Amino acid sequence: MEKIIINGGRPLSGKTELQGSKNSALPILAAAAAVGGVSVIHNCPKLTDVEAAIKILEHIGCKTKREGHTVIVDSSCAERFDIPERLMREMRSSIVFLGALLARFGAGTVSAPGGCEIGLRPIDLHLSSFAAMGVDITERSGILECKAPSGINGCQISLAFPSVGATENIMLAAVSAKGETVITNAAREPEIVDLAEFLNKCGACVSGAGQSIVRIRGVKKLSGAEHRIISDRIVASTIMACCASAGGKVAVSGAITEHLAPIIPVFEAAGCKITAQGGELITEAPKRISRIKSLRTMPYPGFPTDSQAIVMAMLSKADGTSVISEKIFENRFRHVPELIKMGADIRVEDGCVAVVEGVKKLHGARVSACDLRGGCALAVAALGAEDKTVIDNIYHIDRGCEAPEARLSELGADIKRA
Ligand code: EPZ
Fold first, then answer.
1. What HEC string does the chain produce?
2. Measured between alpha carbons, how far is 175 from 99 in angstroms, rounded to an integer?
3. Which residue, judged by its Cα, is nearest atom 1 of ligand 1?
4. Dihedrals φ, ψ of 67, to 5°?
5. pLDDT one-digit tens code per residue, 81-125
6. Ligand 1 pocket residue status of 167, Cβ below 6 Å
7. Whole-number Å distance between alpha carbons of 296 and 302
8. Which residue from 19, 21, 22, 23 has its CB within 8 A of the most atoms of ligand 1, so it is best to mutate?
């Protein structure tokens, strides 16, 4: 199994290019199957999750081609509407293909995606919304068979929780439904807006994306489109945390400052100097970062759960005690025992509140990534630790971070993959 070796304790400096957003690429690739025709998707990051999505597209009959960071999808010949368990299992968020299959074929057979390292990941909101749209869903030993005998009907849907995946799945199923679908309490993440922009370029009629009420008027004809995926706000925050942890000053080009609005104030409160100039986001770390008294993860535009682990890693060396409450997923502190191996002083209460007593120094250790963002947190801590850290199971990191060792080497880190 591949691992990453980091010799920490050196400040970072320099500039690196920000990758395209994994969480925007996935629903947009699914949308390319919904619309039929040729779509050209630029700024598509090279990630194992994206490759898994491309495999699903090919399984249903799409032709795909990757030219650097551009993925071309020709879904005109797509004909299958089943996704086998082996492909569903590779990437948990493949459930978003169900909405695309329903829009294109009026049917879809997928295996229930099941839980993952960070939680049970239920899909009840997805399924109840599809049922409200006229989809008959039968579950047989983990396989979901969905059919819409009288077509997909637009309707009013009120989400009990502003679920990102459910919002995306409903938008996808609704683009060619009969009538209008109104989603109330929709997720407001930037990735929802990016998906809506792509769908509208394909001829869909989506309005209100990014707000709590999203309207989708079903249309008869949809075709492929060309689109550039937004940059990855979570990876941007990860690079910022690497700098805060190791010290120094780094610039990230391609960051969209507006998407980082919930994140920048946290880094400033920790004593970092953040400036945005000429398309670059510059992070300058203080000698020692200050504690964050209380931090809660919330749906956008609140502080993102995906940035919780990396901020906890940088706060492990803060001057004081920080309290972090994880309000979105039930098992998103798996990086804590690994950070403790590196000398962090963290205790978890009720499974969802972490009390981080800042220590002066972290030391290298042999640690294991347990999930994507938790794995990134270990790299953040390692960059600010004395001596050598070895991180195992880095396939988790490769799911969402493109060439992490190349990016961090550009910033002067002593890091290699073995
Ligand atoms: C998306 O996951 C992201 N993944 C996650 O990023 C991100 O953490 C999450 O949104 C929250 O922002 C992708 O976009 C591919 P949710 P998703 O549905 O859609 C509950 C990463 O590291 N819920 O908004 O699965 C659920 O249990 C990943 O890049 C239901 O109860 O998130 C959770 O507690 C991790 N029923 C909460 O909602 C449902 O039907 C948020 O989930 C659906 C969700």
1. CCCEEEECCCCEEEEEECCECHHHHHHHHHHHHHHCCEEEEECCCCCHHHHHHHHHHHHCCCEEEEECCEEEEECCCCCCCEECHHHHHHCHHHHHHHHHHHHHHCEEEEECCCCECCECCCCHHHHHHHHHCCCEEEEECCEEEEECCCCCECCEEECCCCCHHHHHHHHHHHCCCECEEEEECCCCCHHHHHHHHHHHHCCCCEECECECEEEEECCCCCCCCEEECCECHHHHHHHHHHHHHHCEEEEEECCCHHHHCCCHHHHHHCCCEEEEECCEEEEECCCCCECCCEEEECCCCCECHHHHHHHHHHHCCCECEEEEECCCCCCCCCCHHHHHHCCCEEEEECCCEEEEECCCCEECCEEECCCHHHHHHHHHHHHCEECEEEEECCHHHHHHCCCHHHHHHHCCCEEEEC
2. 10
3. 164
4. -120, 90
5. 999 999 998 888 899 999 999 999 999 999 988 778 888 889 999
6. no
7. 8
8. 23
Tell the residue nearest (CA) to atom 30 of ligand 1: 122
For residues 151 and 192, the answer to whether their CB atoms sit within 8 Å is no
CA of 8 to the centre of ligand 1 (A): 32
- Token pair of 20, please? 């395209």
Q: What is the pTM of this model?
A: 0.98
Q: Whose CA is nearest to atom 35 of ligand 1?
A: 306
Residue 111, CA distances (Å) to 88, 213, 372 in order: 7, 30, 23
Pocket test residue of 163, 188, 238, 308 for ligand 1, highest count of atoms within 8 A of CB: 163
Please report the atom of ligand 1 found closest to the CA of residue 329: 34
Q: In angstroms, rounded to a whole number, what is the distance separating the alpha carbons of residues 77 and 60?
A: 9
Q: Provide the pLDDT for residue 1.
A: 87
- Cα 96 to averaged position of ligand 1 atoms, centre (Å): 11
User: How many angstroms separate the alpha carbon of residue 165 from the centre of ligand 1?
Assistant: 6
212 contacts 230 by C-beta, under 8 angstroms: no
Q: Does residue 116 carry a catalytic annotation? A: yes
Give CA–CA dist 273/270, Å, rounded: 9
- Per-residue pLDDT tens for 58-75? 999 999 999 999 999 999
Q: Which of 62, 116, 146, 370 is catalytic?
A: 116
Q: Which two tokens stand for residue 174?
A: 């609704």
Alpha carbon nearest to ligand 1 atom 21, residue: 306
Distance 377 CA to ligand 1 centre (A): 19
